[in-house]
Amino acid sequence: MSKSLPKRSEDYSLWYNELVKRAGLAENSAVRGCMVIKPYGYAIWEKMQRTLDDMFKRTGHQNAYFPLFVPKSLFEAEEKNAEGFAKECAVVTHYRLQTDPDNPGKLRVDPNAKLEEELIVRPTSEAIIWSTYKGWIQSYRDLPLLINQWANVVRWEMRTRLFLRTAEFLWQEGHTAHATAEEAVAETRQMLEVYAQFAEEWMALPVVKGVKTENERFAGAEDTYCIEGLMQDGKALQAGTSHFLGQNFAKAFDVQFQSKEGGLEYVWGTSWGVSTRLMGALVMAHSDDEGLVLPPKLAPIQVVIVPIYKTGQLDELLERIRPMQMGLIERGISVKVDDRDTERPGYKFAEWELKGVPVRLAVGMRDLDAGTVEVARRDTKEKMNLPLADIVNSVAALLDDIQVNIYRKAHQFRETHTTRVDTYEQFKQALEGEGGFVVAHWDGTSETEERIKEETKATIRCIALNEPDEDGTCILTGKPSKRRVYFARAY
Amino acid sequence: MSKSLPKRSEDYSLWYNELVKRAGLAENSAVRGCMVIKPYGYAIWEKMQRTLDDMFKRTGHQNAYFPLFVPKSLFEAEEKNAEGFAKECAVVTHYRLQTDPDNPGKLRVDPNAKLEEELIVRPTSEAIIWSTYKGWIQSYRDLPLLINQWANVVRWEMRTRLFLRTAEFLWQEGHTAHATAEEAVAETRQMLEVYAQFAEEWMALPVVKGVKTENERFAGAEDTYCIEGLMQDGKALQAGTSHFLGQNFAKAFDVQFQSKEGGLEYVWGTSWGVSTRLMGALVMAHSDDEGLVLPPKLAPIQVVIVPIYKTGQLDELLERIRPMQMGLIERGISVKVDDRDTERPGYKFAEWELKGVPVRLAVGMRDLDAGTVEVARRDTKEKMNLPLADIVNSVAALLDDIQVNIYRKAHQFRETHTTRVDTYEQFKQALEGEGGFVVAHWDGTSETEERIKEETKATIRCIALNEPDEDGTCILTGKPSKRRVYFARAY
């Protein structure tokens, strides 16, 4: 609270980093590229986890846990997947340290404790999981196999940013096995819908659902579906992916099943994941120059009550506040009474604004005597005086309204930052202006996609599922195109 | 179900391994010493997690997340801790693989991607967490700091066993910081009580609470408190530990705070943890030759309903079962209706016995017509016919009774397997007989403790908190002793 945040309009990137740290979400650690998720940030992540986990279970999935390490021989079994992740993986080569003979008091790797086979710290778990599925699947009766795992993974990224790109991150990864391609595709799309629903209804983040181009596909997948959100600086952010793996991993790990008809067939697979990256999306999509703006459904504290009192009055005031506090708690609303006697109301207001608490109640003796409460909403910064008698209902309704309003605002932002263009000039202008999604015709080739990326830094975020067919010509090459795709600069 | 389990009386160790695998709790993986926790096992672990997490939060703790890796320079900062874990840690030395020039299609570690400083995969997180706390703690106002983390850790054990000792395991680790030694000791003991309460009320496992001897203390702690359970083979199992760290980590990482009086002091610390080892304790404490016996509070499925029907009747029967099923679900009881048309009732009975489902209802048309249900309890194998009209209440009461009965049985076993002895001969006889806890006088020296361990394989499990003072003489050396301690052979 000592000084104000950098402004979004002046340095969006600095604003983001400072906000994440000052609001107590996360910070950098002593390990290059790895973050510490602080209690307030972790509390939001826990709400995300709980919600998603319930959604996965309602769609028939069970949780399990597979090893952190992948032996090199398994890691390299699915070639494309291995190639995709080999360049950025942490490798365990030894299993012991010893006192350094040249440096007493210091340790060094024990040269006699070298592993026969190196272990890769999982960047994703298809390899270890499909090598396990071989033992679990013999017959069509063992299918579908619907498993999810909550875990940490490591990708040795060179440029990292809190939540958005870190060497270690937390995520969930679903890995399912099916008897037919149709079932596997249906699962892939179902989980995309689950992610989209979570993003829109819980994170208040409108998303475009689509399919990735070959260039952007998950290494080892036949198709990658994704949801793409738009941040306030006009850049897109991939918020979740769901992959149709075909029979690639089944073939790499020899996972076959006896079909109903008696034949032996390779299994069809999917995998899908969202990560702590969602935390970054949540911050970037809604927050402002005063701090976080959290959707009520994910806010660890939904209502903060700040007592306004003269010296010596605090205990009595807290006593009078208690019925309101209890009423809110009974309604299932999480409430914090900021009873610190060491800070002034203005300081507290600023702190809870920074932390994005959706509703603030400022309560003094005089208000209570008059039967009113001063209510401030974080999203619009409106203040109003509401009757004390009906405060629980009013706050509950207000929280619902804030959830809807945050979504509506983000949706409106996306609408005003989605431009349909027909020429390369218009395309570049749209990107250089306020950014956002630029929806344009593309000739379908990787070469064109790459040239556009080199020249404009924009990538194809997805071929949107709800984009209608339309005859047109590629903005770069003029070749024929059947459908527009979504371009954007992206995180 | 193809063949029956090995018997406990014939090969306890084989019985345990087979049971863990066949009941679908866990299996060995392709990675040496690492297990796969299967969905049914993970469902039990999730119930444990949820319960403990609620208990931690009720006692004022918040969750956070710290990096998987510990840079070597931090790892070695607290000398005793480093020495304790250096011999069994996984070390990351490289961050990239490349195509092996001698073996196209294979990968090898890229010699140009060697880390400047090796990273240790955390065997426990004191080092990384206390290096972080240095930034979080400046003043007494920042204390106490009450943090917990759910995470995976790696200890490169040479002899591993599913759940009991694995190279990677899942756990929670609490790490707290306090202004005074008294507060830190109180926290250490509070968390010991939380663990004991969880073990007894949820796992139905009676435990002895005590303090470890110096030999068995956590590396870097001033005192290690523990809870010790007794397994059916007469061996003890340490089920949770809570450490008073003194100022050891605060000094190693220079974590000082300004006291109320204005001085600069080192912070006092605690850490405490339980792990997936609890799963092993749960299995070993209660299960029998037919399979798992799960306490209802931790059973993923509390009631299984097996329809008994003639060909063609299944759909109608399921329809008639539904009200009972819904009644149980509304009561908060987890129910599984085994509607598989491919297996016979006897097969289903055996399968759910193996999986330890506390209550089984076998329901046929004739029973329903007569207004009764056949109820079988897993713990005592009793069967009874109960009135359909009141079945929800009966089952709810039965589940409570089973929880109590499983605890009572384990408690009785411990009572009959706790022997108080006064001579070394009696001591060895007790161990060679049915094992269990042997409570005896000890002279307080590490030498005696080690000699007893060498000669009998028994270790001091703890100096029990509720053991009264009593003058006596050490069973080995005859030297004076003020208090008996708990010995046992242990996992």
Any overview of this molecule?
Two copies of one chain form a homodimer. Chain A is α+β, with helices and mostly antiparallel strands. The first copy, chain A, has three domains: 198 residues, Bira Bifunctional Protein, Domain 2 (BirA Bifunctional Protein, domain 2, 2-Layer Sandwich); 105 residues, 3-Layer(aba) Sandwich (Rossmann fold), CATH 3.40.50; 71 residues, C-terminal domain of ProRS (Translation Initiation Factor IF3, 2-Layer Sandwich). In chain A, 35% of the residues lie in helices and 29% in strands. Chain A contains 14 helices and 26 strands. In chain A, the strands form six sheets. In chain A, strands 3, 9, 10, 11, 12, 13, 16, 22, 23, 24, 25 and 26 form a twelve-stranded mixed β-sheet that branches. At the A-B interface, strand 2, helix 2, strand 3, strand 4 and helix 3 of A face strand 2, helix 2, strand 3, strand 4 and helix 3 of B.
What order do the helices and strands come in, and which of them pair?
The structure is a homodimer of 491-residue chains.
Chain A (H helix, E strand, L loop, with lengths): L11 H11 L3 E3 L6 E3 L1 H20 L3 E2 L5 E3 H4 L3 H8 L4 E4 L2 E3 L7 E3 L4 E8 L4 H11 L8 E10 L13 E11 L2 H22 L5 E4 L11 E8 L5 E11 L1 H5 L3 E3 L5 E3 L1 E8 L1 H10 L16 E6 L5 H17 L4 E3 L7 H10 L4 E6 H6 L1 E6 L5 E5 L3 H26 L1 E3 L3 H9 L4 E5 L4 H11 L2 E6 L4 E5 L6 E9 L3
Parallel strand pairs in A: 3-9, 17-18, 17-19, 22-23
Antiparallel strand pairs in A: 1-2, 4-8, 5-8, 6-7, 9-10, 10-16, 11-12, 11-24, 12-13, 13-16, 14-15, 19-20, 20-21, 23-26, 24-26, 25-26
Helix pairs in contact in A: 2-6
Catalytic activity (chains A, B): tRNA(Pro) + L-proline + ATP = L-prolyl-tRNA(Pro) + AMP + diphosphate
Protein name (chains A, B): Proline--tRNA ligase
Enzyme class (chains A, B): ligase
